[in-house]
User: Which sequence fits this backbone?
């Protein structure tokens, strides 16, 4: 779970679940493109949010305008378990087998 503010919260989990919203206004589901993959971590900066996970392979998604996501998975990556998006836009992801 990560939020830019109390009104802009992202939650990720099993089966590709991505929720976006707030406790006040409720949460809506954002289509991830898979109902099989596990999502582990979400983080953002400025107006961008990145989500990582995967089961057999690494999976990375970046938000687009209008609550959509774009697959930015690095080819051949092991499952990704942590992500940090710096205010500068620099993106770091870590995962299985010590991959960075």
Assistant:
């Amino acid at each position: 779970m990560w939020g830019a503010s109390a009104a802009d919260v992202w939650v990720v989990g099993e089966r590709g679940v991505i929720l976006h919203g707030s406790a006040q206004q409720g949460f809506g589901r954002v289509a991830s493109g898979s109902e099989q993959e596990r999502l582990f971590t979400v983080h953002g900066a400025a107006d961008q949010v990145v989500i990582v996970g995967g089961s057999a392979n690494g999976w990375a998604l970046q938000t687009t305008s209008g609550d959509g996501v774009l697959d930015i998975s690095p080819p051949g990556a092991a499952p990704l378990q942590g992500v940090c998006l710096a205010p500068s836009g620099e993106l770091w992801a870590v995962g299985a087998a010590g991959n960075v």
Summary: The chain is about 0% helix and 50% strand. The CA atoms of residues 57 and 80 lie 8 Å apart.
